[in-house]
C-alpha cells in the first residue's frame, strides 16, 4: 500500500462545529478503512495546520477519493502528500544516471 501524509485546515464551518470534530475524525477513519486503507497516525497540531493524518491507501485513486470526500463535507481543506520509505527512496535514487 502507498503511504500518504495529509495536512488539514479547518474551514469556518469546521471551526464552528469543533465539538463534533472527534466524531467526524472517527467517521473519516472508518471511511478510509472502507476504501481499503488504514490510518497510521492522526495528530492535532498547532501552527499553520490543525491536523496531520498519516495513512495508507491501496492506490493513488483511493487516496484522492478520500481527500475529495472529506473536502466535500465542508469542514476541512486538505493538502495530501505521497510519502516514500527510505528503502523506496534508495531504490529510485539508483535509477539516476
Structure description:
- There is one protein chain.
- This protein is an alpha+beta fold and 97 residues long.
- Helix content is 41%, strand content 32%.
- The chain has a 4-stranded antiparallel β-sheet with strand order 2-3-1-4.
- Strand 2 (38-44) and strand 3 (51-57) form a beta hairpin.
- The longest helix is centred in the first third of the chain and has 14 residues, at 21-34.
- The radius of gyration is 15 Å and the shape is elongated.
- The model has no long low-confidence stretch (mean pLDDT 96).
CATH superfamily: Lrp/AsnC effector binding domain/regulation of amino acid metabolism (RAM) domain
**Unreliably modeled segments:** none
Helix content: 40-55%
- Based on the coordinates given, report the CATH architecture: 2-Layer Sandwich
- Described by the principal axes of the CA atoms, the overall outline is elongated
Mean pLDDT over the full residue set: 96
Q: Please, how many helices?
A: 4
Proportion of residues in extended strands: 25-35%
Biggest sheet architecture: 4 strands, antiparallel
Radius of gyration: 15 Å
